[in-house]
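Bug: token stream looks shifted between consecutive jobs. Job 1:
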Amino acid sequence: MSLSVLVADDSKLSRRSVIRALPQDLEYDITEATNGQEAINELSERSFTLVLLDLTMPEVDGVGVLEFLHERPDAPNVIVISADFQPEKQKIVMSLGAKRFLRKPLDKEELAMALFELGYL
């Protein structure tokens, strides 16, 4: 079974880094979004199992994406991956349904642990 993943980050380098950090023992169907509005468009068109989400993006930020997903019964699990690691931001994203808040640069082991805790590994 393939895990349907949306990677949303305005930096191509960051998206590649996140994709490379995914554990190799799973199969992935990966879609990329370069900003929050693209992420919302993708989330409106199809369902995903997991969203790996940056907070600081143009058009709509990661908080805006989380607000879009917050009331949806079919919302995927969201892991926020951000350099903006302020406690207030963490509270906001967790209150909007994010399952984890990981710091950039992303540590592969932390991502694997988060995926394990969410039941994917």
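Job 2, same session, no restart:
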Amino acid sequence: MKNFKFKIRGNTYEVNVHNFEDETIDVEVNGTLYKVDVEREIKTSKTPKLVRPSVVNTGNADKARTNKPDDRKGAGNIKAPLPGTILEMKVKKGDPVKVGDTLLIMEAMKMENNIKSDKEGIIEEVLVAVNDSVLEGDCLVRVGSN
């Protein structure tokens, strides 16, 4: 049961709602019981309906599927995976490297990270030195073919 006080044109009314079923409410106003029929408005939603455009196949999906996770990355460049500082160099110009060899150690986010080669070849150029700060995507080392 809910109790309300209404003031209409200076007159105070004490209203008690006893029962609310379907479209009928039992209401007591200043001690007199009434059955009131309620008309409900159908409220429209204020949330807009999301309509997505249909997907058009451009044929690029087939090309994307041909790349395998073990495909070699880059064109001979080893890049920084995240911003950091170079702590130690493990290779120099002219050194041969294989896939998985550690090229340098880099500190990033207070952790030491081994930067490894993802290609086989000979180091053509070392572009960083110890204590250098690098940004994500900076080229660290260039690896050439044998």
